[in-house]
């Protein structure tokens, strides 16, 4: 996700391709960062939604591993529902991306959304939850620990 003039992006692509499998020119300078921030807030939102759903199902009597087996074969599957078993149900919380960095990106997304869509409610809530998780677990915790914030509130663990 890059931004800049077409000529600048073409010149930089030689270097960017050394560490990135895919390069998408998103528009003017800043557009790549803006797109990355929205990507990461969607990532976090999906994890929060999946966790909230699994908590409700567990309280209803459905084991999260069973629910995820069904969901991951259906239309509700997302990258996050496929990560839940390895990172949340296992209690590892070790995907490898720091909560503080995720919150930073999501705050950028929150600012973008607030400036472009002042009536937005969902993305600001995700940003707030990331802030609460960072306060609880620290900036170096894995971002998947945002699931633990919801578990703590529900009084139930998924693993």
Automatic annotation (TrEMBL):
Q: Which domain of life is it from?
A: Eukaryota
Q: Which residues lie in coiled coils?
A: none
Ranges of residues in domain 3-hydroxyisobutyrate dehydrogenase-like NAD-binding = 30-150
Report a single Gene Ontology molecular function. NAD binding
PANTHER family noted in UniProt: 3-HYDROXYISOBUTYRATE DEHYDROGENASE-LIKE 1, MITOCHONDRIAL-RELATED
- InterPro entries from the xrefs? 6-PGluconate_DH-like_C_sf, 6PGD_dom2, HIBADH-like_NADP-bd
Name it: 3-hydroxyisobutyrate dehydrogenase-like NAD-binding domain-containing protein
Matching Pfam families, A to Z?
Answer: NAD_binding_11 (PF14833)
